[in-house]
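Exercise: predict the structure of this protein bound to zinc ion.
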Amino acid sequence: MFRGAKGRCPSCGETKLFSSYLRVVPVCAVCSAPLGTYPSDDAPPYITMVIVLHLIIPIIVVLEETVQPPFWLDGIIFLPLAAILTLLLLPVVKGATIGLLLRLQVQRGQDGH
Ligand SMILES: [Zn+2]
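Solution:
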């Protein structure tokens, strides 16, 4: 799971998990783990949003209680910050999700295993 979070094959850690941003390699070139078969399409964006909200909301609360920035300033700072954090975290969360699914052997479809 931590290998996946670092963008490596969760099974062997030898190869890249993504062939491009968020595009998962179908089969690991080293250990031939069927990485592309894991149904990780829906959970990572949701998990990423939850993480980002938990990171940002405390910052907003602290700022509101200390410097009390005007509302428009919140929007200018935190909307781009939330977007950037989401983009940075999404591959990490997706890699970790695939690593977790690989561990749990949850695969898309039933192919006789
Ligand atoms: Zn591998």
